[in-house]
Design a protein that fits this description.
mainly alpha
Length: 112
Amino acid sequence: MSTGYAWIVLFVAGLCEVGWAVGLKYTAGFSRLWPSVWTLAGMAASVILLAWSLKALPLGTAYAVWTGIGAVGTAILGIYLFEESREAARLVSIALIVAGIVGLKLLTPDGQ
């Protein structure tokens, strides 16, 4: 797998992580069938795609980016879907996570 393709796979894995994390809210403790099924499918897809991306990316970088995408996406959807806090310090903190993700991407050499 090429490094470029691995980054795309990792990004999709991060989006799947956002999907299952938000999905947890809708499962009501896994007591609702279809939200639970979709959440579990998102979990599986997220981990499988992360594993595929590790064929070409360093573990530490890939895992940090994967969790970062999940954290940022989940926090943003929490703001919009569940009316969570939008205070400036929280938004700055989210921006710092994004900066870390971008930094890791920029500092990871091809072929690593």
